[in-house]
Amino acid sequence: MHQNPIEQVGISNGYGFRVFKRTYGISPQKYLSKLKINEAKKLLVKPQYSINDISNSLGYTNLANFSRQFKRWCNLSPNQWKKSIHKSKRGNVRI
After folding, report:
1. pLDDT tens digit string along 58-85?
2. Rounded to the nearest 10 degrees, how much is the dihedral formed by the CA atoms of 87, 89, 91, 95?
3. Global pTM?
4. What is the spatial distance between Cα 71 and Cα 30, in angstroms, rounded to a whole number?
């Protein structure tokens, strides 16, 4: 049977959660969400990656689930966010 990382170091889940939260100021779940948000945003500005590629790379098996979660994080769909970034970059270019 597979143990979670906290159990592997020989401490209880509750204690591990409290130590993590005390150290980082947020829960492990929120920490992971922040990592995923930042990675998604980094990849969305790169035209060589489709939204489906990004969704898969972040561990989502369903594009709709990734899109829904991204919208919760950013109040925009991944496609809307990608378009807004490209639009703002074009607006900042001086010719």
Report:
1. 999 999 999 999 999 999 999 999 888 8
2. -130
3. 0.75
4. 16
- For residues 21-44, give the mean pLDDT: 93
Domain spans in the chain, listed from the N-terminal domain onward = 29-92
Identify the architecture of domain 29-92 in CATH: Orthogonal Bundle (1.10)
Question: For the range 32-41, what are the long-range contacts, defined as Cβ-Cβ under 8 Å and sequence gap of 24 or more?
Answer: 33/73, 37/70, 37/73, 37/74, 40/66, 40/70, 40/73, 40/78, 41/74, 41/81
Q: Would you tell me the crossing angle of helices 63-74 and 78-92 to the nearest 10 degrees?
A: 50
